[in-house]
């Protein structure tokens, strides 16, 4: 599955999700009626390194990173303790090779917020990712209802 196919899958499976291009990535927000300035952050697809985000080495040919906010409780089920917030321009202090493909791992920068990522997800991990997307989607529905 390439990044464009994944984008179409997200938009086709989660109603009310919109996509914007910013900071060298496609950001997905839940904002079904446009009532919030941006919406509730849901996921990102990033295909290239940025000035403060080079850890995944996304400038490699054909490599992209899917990031998903699963909330801290789900993050802890997957990876244990939430790491401390990294200093500006730094990454979380965890023992992961963030260049690895096909493996779910904490987000190199936003793990402290309960975000996870995977470089180049494939059909082998799509079922599990769908489960995480469903959890994240339910979380954004609750957050959206509170903001309205």
From TrEMBL:
Q: Where is the DUF6194 domain?
A: 1-147
Superkingdom, natural source: Bacteria
Protein name as catalogued: DUF6194 domain-containing protein
């Amino acid at each position: 599955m390439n990044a464009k196919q994944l984008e179409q899958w997200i938009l086709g499976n989660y109603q009310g999700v919109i996509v914007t291009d910013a900071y060298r990535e496609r950001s997905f927000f839940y904002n079904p009626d446009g009532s919030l300035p941006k919406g509730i952050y849901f996921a990102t697809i990033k295909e290239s390194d940025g000035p403060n985000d080079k850890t995944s080495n996304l400038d490699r040919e054909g490599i992209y990173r899917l990031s998903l906010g699963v909330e801290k409780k789900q993050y802890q089920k997957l990876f244990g303790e939430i790491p401390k917030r990294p200093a500006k321009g730094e990454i979380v202090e965890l023992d992961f090779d963030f260049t690895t493909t096909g493996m779910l791992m904490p987000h190199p920068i936003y793990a402290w917020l309960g975000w996870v990522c995977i470089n180049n997800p494939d059909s082998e991990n799509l079922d599990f990712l769908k489960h995480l997307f469903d959890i994240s989607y339910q979380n954004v529905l609750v957050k959206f209802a509170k903001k309205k």
